């Protein structure tokens, strides 16, 4: 903990509440399209359900790298079809606006105050699968005090591919152990640790609502295990001046 100089964060699920945010953004569109029979939360879950399969096409080498905004837009088409919504009847402006919902997600309540406390002592930034414009817009919307934006568009690799972590650390020009990934997903932390990064676990039991199963607790002895971002800041700031 004493050697850590940079904190990089998984964003979707760890920093921001994508599930309720997408549901909130989707609800007025579903109403406009006459589909109040569709639960906005179910729509959100279905859209997010395409997240890993679409990135796996790139991780596997079957498809060249493209930005997450592009994948989200393709996944939106899939979800509309899944729910029996005729995409051709929707204006391009509406589709673009709904796809940008991923740029307008709220932070979990404990995040911003904790980041503000950590910022004087650590380099802060996302290490996310989101592209740069998405991360910048999200930071402005949710008031996230990032100093640098790292992640897939910088590395041209999607987590948990090793290059997603290694190239991000290279960009910071720091020893690997001095960069700590903060995440609510044990698999993300395992991949980061295998690349030599320090690790911090913060659970988000509400990320998937009652469907949450995999990451209710830390499944390894990560360098820091916190109950929330407030506790994370408390542990990391021990011995540091205010």
Brief synopsis:
With 242 residues, the chain is an alpha/beta fold. The chain has 11 helices and 6 strands.
> Portion of residues in helices?
40-55%
Which residues sit in consecutive blocks of at least 5 with pLDDT less than 50?
none
Order of helices and strands: EHHHHHHEHEHHEHEEH
| Backbone shape | globular
Task: Kindly report the average pLDDT value.
Answer: 96
Enter the CATH topology name of the largest domain: Rossmann fold
Strand order of the largest sheet: 3-2-1-4-5-6
In angstroms, what is the radius of gyration? Answer: 18 Å
Instruction: Give the full name of the CATH homologous superfamily of the largest domain.
Output: HAD superfamily/HAD-like
Distance between the termini: 17 Å
CATH class designation of the largest domain:
Alpha Beta
Main beta-sheet strand count, sense and barrel state:
6 strands, parallel
Number of strand elements: 6
Number of helices: 11
What is the CATH architecture descriptor of the largest domain? 3-Layer(aba) Sandwich
Strand content: 5-15%
**Number of domain modules:** 2
Structural class: alpha/beta
Give me the secondary-structure topology.
Layout: E1 6-9, H1 18-32, H2 40-49, H3 51-59, H4 68-82, H5 92-99, H6 111-118, E2 123-128, H7 132-142, E3 150-151, H8 152-155, H9 162-172, E4 179-183, H10 186-194, E5 198-201, E6 224-225, H11 229-236
Parallel strand pairs: 1-2, 1-4, 2-3, 4-5, 5-6
Helix pairs in contact: 1-2, 2-4, 6-11
Structure description:
- It is built from eleven helices and six strands.
- With 242 residues, it is of the alpha/beta class.
- It folds into two domains: 144 residues, Rossmann fold, CATH 3.40.50.1000; 86 residues, DNA polymerase, domain 1, CATH 1.10.150.240.
- It has a six-stranded parallel sheet with strand order 3-2-1-4-5-6, with helices on both faces.
- Helix 10 links the parallel strand 4 and strand 5.
- The mean pLDDT is 96.
